[in-house]
DNA sequence: CTACTTGCAAAAAATTTGCTGCTAT
DNA sequence: ATAGCAGCAAATTTTTTGCAAGTAG
């Protein structure tokens, strides 16, 4: 266990942070890699993974570990809820005010030290629905 | 696309369902495999994956796609909330009544056809906390 | 300077799949 | 009978890691 390394703001880290914050979508690591390669063709997928991990550990971005096979990342570090399409796996924000009181309820009902909570809605997005209303 | 195969209750499928329902924990596919091998040594990991998938598609069990690297499965098919330990990744039930009204709010605020929602609390479990209170 | 970081490639971890023979219905 | 299923092994997919060279502070 290393004792708090000093974080360096490398070009790669900065561009990863910038590009992610520009997006309102919630890309996977590989989607970020594809985007980043356009600006920085030699960047490696390993670097993307390592930095997304580090930035979310620092609280500068969020790792969203909701459904789907791949992890997704969110440039908005504030707590907010998400909605995911069951068909295409797209993840979007949903403007429901997170209920912090819920965490107090959880504290009373469990022996865990409750840190946070996250709610994900699951549904069918308009474009998937249009594609096959079945 | 295949048109609704008839589901067979094989020995393997049955024992997977039984053993999962016995547990109050939420094992990963591999954890299930380890448990099942004790009763059925020749069962394969592929079979475990295939059946957990099929059973959750049928709504007989739940796939819980929350944080952590592996998917977890829950023999309790009723909707309920979970709490996950940030350190050991254990997932347990939490006795908070799911708020179905939230889904109506979501319907009003988004263009998705909202099907369900899930809330996950994140914290530190008592045993991890005891192990290192830092 | 020097620890942290990168690109690259290889490895590991997690899950899915093709196939052949078996079995529930 | 026969469509679906199991076991096995190989393939994919997703993520992590070791290492030598580069770089921010």
Counted by DSSP, the helix tally of chain A is: 5
What oligomeric assembly is this protein in? Answer: homodimer
Percentage beta strand of chain A: 15-25%
> What is the CATH class designation of the largest domain in chain A?
Mainly Alpha
The strand count of chain A comes to: 5
Shape, per Cα inertia axes of chain A: flat
Average pLDDT of chain A: 90
Q: How does CATH name the architecture of the largest domain in chain A? A: Orthogonal Bundle
Task: Name the largest protein-protein interface in this structure.
Answer: A-B, 34 and 34 residues
**Percent helix of chain A:** 25-40%
Indicate the low-confidence ranges of chain A by residue numbers: none
Q: Summarize the main sheet of chain A.
A: 3 strands, mixed
Relevant CATH superfamily of the largest domain in chain A:
Winged helix-like DNA-binding domain superfamily/Winged helix DNA-binding domain
The CATH topology of the largest domain in chain A, please? Arc Repressor Mutant, subunit A
The overall number of domains of chain A is 2
